[in-house]
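Bug report (template v2)

What were you trying to do?
Predict the complex of my protein with coenzyme A.

What happened?
Run completed; filing so the output is reviewed.

Input:
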Amino acid sequence: MQNYVNWFRTAAPYINAHKGKTVVLAFGGDVVEDERFAAIVHDIAILSTLGLKLVLVHGTGNAMDATLPEATQEAGAARGRRAVSTQDLERITGHAGLLRARIEALLSMGIANSPMHGARIRVCSGNFVIAQPLGVHAGTDFGHAGRVRRIDRDGISAELVSGNIVLLSPLGYSTTGEIFYLGHDEVAVAAATSLGADKLVFLEESLLTDAAGNVQRDLPLRLAQTLAAEQPSAVLDAAIDACQGGVERCYVLDYRRDGALLCELYTRDGIGTMVNRDSYESIRVAGIEDVGGIMELIAPLERDGTLVRRSRERLELEIDCFSVVERDGAIIACAALYADTPNRSGELACVATDPGYRRSGRANRLLEHIEARARDGGVERLFVLTTRTAHWFVERGFRPAELGELPEKRRELYNYQRNSKVFIKNI
Ligand SMILES: CC(C)(COP(=O)(O)OP(=O)(O)OC[C@H]1O[C@@H](n2cnc3c(N)ncnc32)[C@H](O)[C@@H]1OP(=O)(O)O)[C@@H](O)C(=O)NCCC(=O)NCCS
C-alpha cells in the first residue's frame, strides 16, 4: 500500500504538468501488428483520460514494404524512398485501412478492468495531411510516393480541443485529389512541428545507441547531430528534424517494454532516449576545468555574504561534489552535494544561478539532479543551511529543522555568526 502511495505522490506532479500538452505518437505498422499493441493502446487511452492531447501516426509495416521495389540509395528528398505504382498504392491503402480500423477498435474498448471502463474515447481521422508527389529523381518516377506539403493544423487542433484523439495514416491527399504514400516518420514530424507539439514520441524496437552500442538516454540536439553523422538512423534524423522545427523534446521508446509510455511520461528519470532542443545547455557533474567558471559565478554571491567563501584550492579539492549547468561553454548554475555516506545524509550547498538566467527552473533542475546523485550514493536525508533562501527550499519539499538534527561533524562546524537556518528533506 505504501508503495502505491509513494508512486502516486511521485506521479502527481507529472500528471499535472502534462495535462493539456500536445503529444504526437508515431509507430510503425509492425507495432500495430504486434501482440503487445493492445496493451499499448490501453496506455494511450489512459494518457487521453489524463488530459493529454494526442495525435497518433501509424505506419504500414514491413510486410507492406517488402512488396515494393527496392529503396533508392540516392541522397536528398528521395533517399530511402521507394517508387509506388498504382497497384502498390491499392495494396497500401487497403492495408493502412485495416491497421486504422484495428487501432480504432482497440481504442473503442475504453479502459477495461478499471473503474474507467466504458470511458468513451473518440478517435477521428480524415484529410488532415496534404501531400505532393515526390516526383522524378535521377530519372526514376516515384509515382504515388509523396511528401508532406502541409498539415491541416486548424482541423487537427479543433479535434484535440474537443478531447478527441487524432489518428493519421501515412497517406496524404493532393489538391488534385490524388493519394500519396508518405513515410509515417515524416508525417509525425510534420504534424508535431506544425501543431507546436510539446513532445514527439517514437515507439521503436530499440533505444538509440552510439557506435559502440551504448544506449543513449539524454541527447541534446548538438550531440544528436554528431551521432547521426556517425551512425545514420531514420528515427534519429526524424527527432532532429522535429527539434529543429521547434518541438522541445522527442523520445524514442522500446515498445516491447510494458508500460514504456507511462514510465517515460510519469516518472522522474524516464526509460527511453530523449532528444531535446535545448542543445546548448546540459546538466552534468563538474570537472576540474569548471573551477574557473564556478568561481566567476559565485564570486559576487560570496562578496555580498549570500554564500560562504571558498578558496580556489578548496574548490579544486571539492570539485567532484559539484554539479553544473553549462550553456554554450559557460557555467550558468551550480550546486554542491557533500555526501556523508555512513550517516546516509548529505549537505546541499552553493546553489547559485547566474542572474541573467534565473527564474527558468534551472536551480530546480539542478536540485533534481543533485537529489538523484544523492539517492544513487545512498543518501536518504538532504540538508541545507541558508541565510536568505529559506522559502525556495521550503517550496521544494524541505522542512525547517533544529541544529540538533544535523550530523555531529557538521554541527561542530556550524558558524553561529552566520546564523544560517537549517532545512531537511527526505529523498
Ligand atoms: C535561489 C536561486 C538559486 C534560484 O535560481 P533559479 O534558477 O532562478 O531557480 P528556479 O528558476 O528553479 O526558481 C525560481 C523561483 O525561485 C524564487 N526565488 C529566487 N530567490 C529566492 C529566495 N531567496 N527565496 C525564495 N524564493 C526565491 C524566484 O522568485 C522564482 O519563483 P517565482 O518565479 O515563483 O517568483 C537563485 O536565485 C540564486 O542564485 N540566488 C542567489 C544564491 C542563493 O541564494 N543560493 C542559495 C544559498 S544556499
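What did the reviewer find?
The chain has 15 helices and 21 strands. Residues 86-108 form the longest helix (23 residues).
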